[in-house]
């Protein structure tokens, strides 16, 4: 499949992540895999997905290292699709996406919720810093910056954003351009 990532975005982890798991069916297949589905017919029945689309998505998930294709029957040959460690590591992303969706629904409109398996109590997923336990949803407290492998273009982008964050506050017009204060 041709890449949808712009050449200049190839180093961006968000762009490359979306390339692997950003497709509609991919997220739904992974969600079903987290629910314990492993067989082609289980995915197809659960999702109502066409055979050709499911075949394509499963091949991509295997090629991307998110699922492993394993034989479970020899005559006729049948395979199951099992989450790899890399695939299991996507679960927090799917949990966060589902939580975001539920956050924008009335409680009575939620068709799926995350609960503690032992107690049945509903969980409220949040993304936190493992070191401090602080929530990461505050974009003033936690910001992206260039990493060790960043190109000159990426470093320039984050240097500029850092300068803007530390510049004296100027109101912005509707186009996002800083405007001098009228005081």
Explain this structure to me?
With 183 residues, the protein is mainly alpha-helical. The chain has seven helices and two strands. The protein has a two-stranded antiparallel sheet with strand order 1-2. A hairpin with a 4-residue loop joins strand 1 and strand 2. The N and C termini lie far apart (55 Å). The mean pLDDT is 85.
Describe this structure in a few short sentences.
With 183 residues, this protein is mainly α.
Question: How would you state the average pLDDT, rounded?
Answer: 85
What is the string of helix and strand elements?
A: HHHHEEHHH
Q: How large is the share of residues in beta strands? A: 5-15%
Note the main sheet.
2 strands, antiparallel
Number of helices: 7
Contiguous runs where pLDDT drops below 50 for at least 5 residues: none
What class would the helix/strand composition place it in? mainly alpha
Number of strands: 2
Give the CA-based shape.
globular
């Amino acid at each position: 499949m041709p890449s949808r990532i712009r050449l200049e975005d190839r180093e961006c982890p968000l762009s490359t992540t979306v390339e692997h798991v950003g497709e509609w069916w991919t997220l739904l297949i992974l969600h079903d895999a987290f629910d314990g589905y492993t067989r082609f017919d289980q995915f197809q029945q659960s999702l109502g997905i066409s055979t050709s689309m499911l075949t394509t998505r499963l091949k991509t998930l295997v090629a991307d290292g998110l699922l492993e294709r394993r034989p479970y029957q020899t005559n006729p040959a049948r395979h199951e699709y099992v989450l790899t460690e890399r695939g299991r590591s996507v679960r927090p992303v799917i949990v966060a996406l589902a939580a975001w969706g539920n956050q924008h629904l009335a409680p009575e409109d939620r068709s799926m919720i995350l609960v503690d398996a032992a107690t049945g109590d509903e969980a409220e997923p949040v993304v936190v810093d493992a070191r401090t336990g602080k929530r990461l949803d505050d974009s003033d407290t936690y910001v992206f910056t260039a990493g060790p492998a960043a190109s000159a273009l990426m470093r320039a982008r984050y240097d500029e954003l850092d300068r803007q964050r530390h510049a004296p506050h100027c109101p912005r017009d509707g186009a996002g351009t800083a405007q001098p204060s009228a005081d």
